[in-house]
Write a structure and sequence with these properties.
Blueprint (H helix, E strand, L loop, with lengths): L5 E3 L9 E4 L3 H11 L5 E7 L2 E6 L2 E6 L11 E6 L4 H13 L8 H9 L13 H11 L13 H5 L4 E4 L3 E3 L2 H8 L3 H21 L6 H10 L4 H11 L4 H8 L6 H7 L2 H36 L2 H29 L2
Antiparallel strand pairs: 1-8, 2-3, 2-6, 3-4, 4-5, 6-7
């Protein structure tokens, strides 16, 4: 086995890219024999250095700067041939709202490989190809005939996408050290979200997998609003944005940025982050409007805490923008 020295070239990734990866040679060989596709996992880019995917731990977000690969061709991106900000935002907001959903059973994966033309037997569960296919179907783009049951090979064969290669590069020593370090923020985030939904299922007595499903339940049964809000507030979920800023100050502080990246990379990184600013802001603004409309209609405290959270997330996006503009003013 070779060394895992390849990392994502962040400047080559775009919002909404479907990343097909190989991180396990044995699993890759099995998948190629069974489906004709050597890639064995899919993720969708939702922001700069951020993706969402469905794996054994359920639907969760991840940091693409913390992934390493053995070979240069271990990843390709599937990118829409024709797209718009509205499509990409709708697709990425769909997967954001699925965070927390548990992984589907092996039986569901086998149904996908068999190409069954039926509705999802486990509609409240996800696997990687289903998640990205459903996301784009929600946004109005039919990548495959049946988004409930599809394989990675079905996604590759879609007439709606083009294959983008060459998105990995050799990492330098500092980048590889960062990539190989387990992210305490992401690990804590998964733990917090899993805990929230586990407690919510107990509180509400139903199969709640996402914040959206919890919201629907509380709208019908507002007497559970106070208990659900207490679970979320006590979990620390509402304050994770502070930990993100503290752990990655290079994106929120000018001096930290200068100290973290080589001079020759400053302009490219700043341009890339600024290029994502509009879509990031539109993403959060759309969610902000949705939560405000729901609060106006239903008056739940549950809606209020999410409005406050998104206000803070928008503040982070704006702060990143201001730092990047200052970096570019140096040139």
């Amino acid at each position: 086995m070779g060394e895992f020295n390849y990392i994502f070239d962040q400047n080559k990734l775009e919002l909404g890219d479907i990343l097909l990866i190989i991180s396990d040679r044995g699993l890759s060989k099995q998948m190629e024999e069974r489906t004709g596709c050597k890639y064995h996992h899919a993720m969708i880019v939702v922001a700069y250095s951020s993706y969402i995917h469905s794996y054994g731990g359920g639907v969760q977000s991840g940091n693409s700067a913390r992934r390493t690969f053995e070979r240069e061709d271990d990843v390709v991106a599937l990118r829409l041939k024709s797209s718009s900000n509205e499509i990409l935002i709708n697709a990425t907001n769909f997967v954001r709202r699925k965070i927390g959903t548990q992984y589907s059973s092996l039986r569901e994966l086998l149904r996908a490989e068999m190409g069954l033309e039926v509705g999802a037997a486990e509609a409240n569960r996800q696997f990687c190809s289903r998640l990205v296919a459903q996301a784009y179907a929600h946004a109005g783009v039919e990548l495959v005939e049946n988004p409930d049951y599809c394989t990675l090979q079905d996604l590759i064969a879609s007439g709606e996408v083009e294959i983008i290669s060459g998105i990995l590069r050799i990492g330098n020593e500092d980048e590889l050290e960062y990539a190989r370090e387990k992210s305490p923020i992401l690990s804590k985030q998964e733990e917090i979200q899993s805990g929230i939904f586990e407690q919510a299922r107990v509180l509400c007595g139903t199969d709640i997998q996402t914040f959206e499903q919890l919201e629907d339940f509380l709208i019908t049964y507002p007497e559970f609003d106070e208990g659900a809000v207490a679970i979320i507030e006590q979990s620390g979920y509402l304050y994770q944005w502070k930990e993100e800023m503290a752990k990655n100050p290079q994106y929120y502080d000018y001096d930290a940025f200068i100290a973290s990246f080589p001079n020759e990379a400053h302009q490219a990184i700043a341009y890339k982050i600024l290029g994502n600013y509009k879509s990031d802001l539109l993403n959060f603004s759309a969610e902000h409007s949705r939560w405000k409309a729901s609060f106006k209609k239903h008056g739940l405290r549950y809606h209020e805490i999410h409005i406050d959270l998104i206000d803070n997330l928008i503040g982070m996006v704006v702060q990143r923008k201001e730092v990047m503009e200052r970096i570019l003013n140096d040139f």
